[in-house]
Design brief:
Helix content is 33%, strand content 26%. With 403 residues, the protein is α+β, with helices and mostly antiparallel strands. It folds into two domains: 270 residues, L-amino peptidase D-ALA esterase/amidase (4-Layer Sandwich), CATH 3.60.70.12; 119 residues, Ubiquitin-like (UB roll) (Roll). Strands 1, 2, 3, 4, 5, 6, 7 and 8 form an eight-stranded mixed β-sheet that branches. A hairpin with a 2-residue loop joins strand 5 and strand 6. Helix 1 packs across helix 2, helix 2 runs parallel beside helix 3 and helix 7 crosses helix 9.
Length: 403
């Protein structure tokens, strides 16, 4: 679905979008740190943000923009989260939007703003102003790679996707860039994700599609169980594809939603796999639950367990840790109905830890990708959770984060 031919196109793959990423001196390492994404043609906008009640200033400003239903641009920076910065933080976030609007010729409430980095520091607005002006001058159809690199922090790489699908008699394109590596848990994570599309769609349906897609993607991943102050997922849809406008939940909407959901799931996988210090990418499939919520709760309990995560890092088969996490998840499970598999090998079945071949298990645990299957035996609902192991490097990264 996702062609390598689109790898560098990212958010510029859909018609009418340009982007740029520049160095403004906000990151201590001197790397790219200010990004701008722009569509001259007005776009419907949808957004999903952190549920942390201590949310960053740009989150509050961007919620207002989403509330207007339309937008022209996204301005984002890395190196400073602009979180826990009080009234000054709000003024700075609003100024980010104003500076970009003045350069682009649109209104302040046409500009989504986002920040990521260290919590508690004020934005260096002189650098931000210079960065925004420079980024607007560099806007181009080839700017997605730099924009993607400008929003990463402890990520080892920028996450990007692009694809197309036929909707309403037209080729509709999608592009995305995302960042996220630590302080990752559902609702959502220390992540920024910007998705562009040239589909023509009603704004309320766009918001519904994004909210539903987020629930089974970004809200089903975790690295360390910590919820951030800055999480933002935003979609801009400028209608340039010329498809028959999507105004109901018919076949065209279902095609659009399926594509958007796949993009969000693939990006969630990339973020989980690139967790800080991660050496394993772990997929946890929970089946046989009475509800999706129960399945997700069980999966998250296992995925967030430090004991489970360190066991996988050490390539140590310790199924007792997994069944323990299932048991304290808060879901009323029956141990005698549960079975658990690591890489297809049964390690727990109906109340008992089972025998398994040491050589076969070694092959499972030494692999980078590991699948954990948990059958609860209670119903027909399921959920899939994406996570990673917990390594020495994770401790080092976060012990030294401010220094």
């Amino acid at each position: 679905m996702f062609s390598d031919n689109h790898k560098t196109a990212g958010v510029c793959y859909p018609q009418g979008f340009t982007a740029a990423g520049v160095r403004a001196g906000i990151k201590k390492n001197g790397n790219l740190d200010v990004a701008v994404i722009y569509t001259q043609k007005e776009a419907a906008v949808a957004g999903v943000f952190t549920k942390n009640l201590v949310y960053a200033a740009p989150v509050g400003v961007s919620k207002v923009v989403v509330g207007t239903g339309t937008a022209h641009a996204v301005v984002a920076n890395a190196g400073c989260a602009n979180a826990c910065t009080g009234e000054q933080g709000i003024r700075d976030a609003e100024k980010m939007a104003t500076l970009a609007a003045n350069e682009l010729g649109c209104r302040q409430d046409d500009v989504i703003v986002a920040s990521t980095g260290l919590i508690g520091s004020n934005l260096p607005m002189d650098k931000m102003e210079a960065g925004i002006k420079a980024a607007v001058k560099e806007l181009s159809r080839e700017g997605s790679v730099n924009a993607g690199n400008a929003i990463i922090t402890t990520d080892t790489y920028s996450k990007t996707l692009a694809t197309e699908v036929e909707i309403g008699g037209a080729e509709v394109r999608f592009g995305a860039i995302a960042k996220g590596s630590g302080m990752i848990r559902p609702d959502m994570a220390t992540m920024l994700c910007f998705i562009t599309t040239d589909v023509d769609i009603d704004q309320k349906l766009l918001q519904k599609a994004l909210s539903d897609a987020t629930e089974v993607s970004f809200n089903c991943m975790t690295v360390d169980g910590d919820m951030s102050t800055n999480d933002s997922v935003v979609v801009l849809a400028n209608g340039a594809a010329g498809n028959k406008r999507i105004v109901d939940e018919g076949e065209d909407y279902q095609t659009f939603y399926a594509t958007l959901k796949t993009i969000c799931i693939e990006l969630a996988k990339k973020i989980a796999a690139d967790g800080e210090g991660a050496s394993k990418f772990i997929t946890i499939n929970v089946t046989g639950a009475e509800s999706f919520a129960d399945a997700k709760k069980v999966g998250m309990s296992v995925a967030n367990s430090p004991l489970v995560k360190t066991a996988f890092f050490g390539e140590d088969c310790n199924p007792g840790r997994t069944i323990c996490a299932v048991g304290y998840s808060g879901v009323p499970v029956s141990p005698e109905k549960i079975s658990i598999k690591f890489g297809g090998l049964t390690v727990y079945d109906k109340g008992l830890v089972t025998k398994y071949g040491a050589d076969a298990m070694r092959e499972v645990l030494t692999a980078h990708d590991i699948i954990v299957d948990i059958e609860l035996g209670l119903g027909n609902e399921s959920a899939t959770i994406y996570t990673c192991d917990l390594s020495f490097q994770y401790i080092k990264i976060n012990a030294d984060y401010t220094t």
